[in-house]
Amino acid sequence: MTRIFLTGATGFVGRYVAARLLARDEVTGLDVLVRAEDRDHAKARLLDSLLHAVDPSEAQELVERVEPVIGDLRSPRFGLSEQAWDELATRTTHVIHGAANVRFDQDLEDARSYNVFGTQQAAALARRALELGGLTRFDWVGTAFVAGLRRDAVAEDELEHQAGWKNPYEQSKYEAEVWLRKNASDLPLTVFRPSIVVGESASGATTNFGMLYWPIRIYAKGWWRTVVGAANTPVDIVPVDFVADALDVLTRPGEPVGRTYHLTSGVDGAVSIQSLAQLANEYFGGRPARFVDPEFFMTWLRPAVDLLIWGPKRRVLRQGGRFFVPYMSGNPLFDNTETVNALKPHGIAVPQVSQYFANLLDYCRDTDFGKNPPS
Ligand SMILES: NC(=O)c1ccc[n+]([C@@H]2O[C@H](COP(=O)([O-])OP(=O)(O)OC[C@H]3O[C@@H](n4cnc5c(N)ncnc54)[C@H](OP(=O)(O)O)[C@@H]3O)[C@@H](O)[C@H]2O)c1
Known about the structure:
Layout: E1 2-7, H1 14-22, E2 27-34, H2 39-50, H3 56-64, E3 66-70, H4 82-91, E4 94-97, H5 108-115, H6 117-132, E5 137-141, E6 153-154, H7 168-183, E7 189-194, E8 196-198, H8 213-220, E9 226-228, E10 234-235, E11 237-239, H9 240-250, E12 260-263, H10 266-269, E13 271-272, H11 273-284, E14 290-292, H12 294-308, H13 311-324, H14 326-329, E15 333-334, H15 337-343, H16 353-367
Parallel strand pairs: 1-2, 1-4, 2-3, 4-5, 5-7, 6-15, 7-12, 8-11, 9-14
Antiparallel strand pairs: 10-13
NADP nicotinamide-adenine-dinucleotide phosphate binds near residues 8, 13, 33, 98 and 194.
């Protein structure tokens, strides 16, 4: 009998995970943390979210089987009373903490209040469940980008480094993972580190048009054909269905605990910015992308861009540029040997980018980058 407490179920990744957990025979209940005014609001939010991940008929049925726990990452005990906290801990056999604030534009203290403090609350719940009942697993969703400004191949068992980070989000996730390693060694902890999560491999469907989608969008619209970055920068992307499948099978009863999994395309599967630009060029047509060194751009070209480009186009270019250009100028590689070996018995392999990239672009084109989602 498995009763899971899941956070992040209303998010891009979490909704696919929730649907998979509910399909498991041994899962007798699923409690999910939701920010909501009341139970009806929580259920409506969950339905709205699941409608993006499963068929509408299935979504309603799934929501009926979920128990919402109204709360917030930034409050002690997620804002639950001591009694509600202990009741939740008593019935919980498995905690999966996926909730986080993933914005790149927050300041460090804000990012910590969600990502470090929220992780500490999830660990406290797991520990209480260990004391009161039968906790068997505590699974934590981190990010491969805890590796920050490293530029080499990162092994799954590596964490601490001095290289720094691209933004407060990365740093807060790093600090949360370091905190867990130092303070949660008594818990059956397993860490999952996805890289850049993109839409579903078969349909391209996504609700998240950040990161990789920013350069694709400005490129597709013909606004800007110059990539500010280095052509050979490796980019590691994985489709959301792969991430959810991996989280599903690797968190089942009997799976080992204590490991760290890179849910990534790996050292050989990462592709260069240049090859992604080429694929986008073949798809959208027009002039091929040019590459310009970020430092040269900031010193010499950015002032001209500021003068020549106006309106919403300028906002999209500047904001996206600030947050996403660092990911086009240099990235680590994420070795995924342990994950590949663990997934093999389940018949799951990491999809190759060339197998599904056109599906992502189809979805971008058909929905105008999420503006006209399918009804
Ligand atoms: N997407 C990626 O490319 C990527 C890559 C690597 C790692 N990850 C990791 O994967 C996990 C899921 O990311 P995602 O892309 O699915 O993010 P997302 O779409 O922004 O979803 C975040 C989830 O966390 C919840 N959450 C945020 N603040 C909360 C709060 N104060 N209290 C309670 N819940 C809160 C959100 O609830 P609301 O609906 O109420 O906002 C939502 O359910 C995160 O841990 C992230 O670090 C993501």
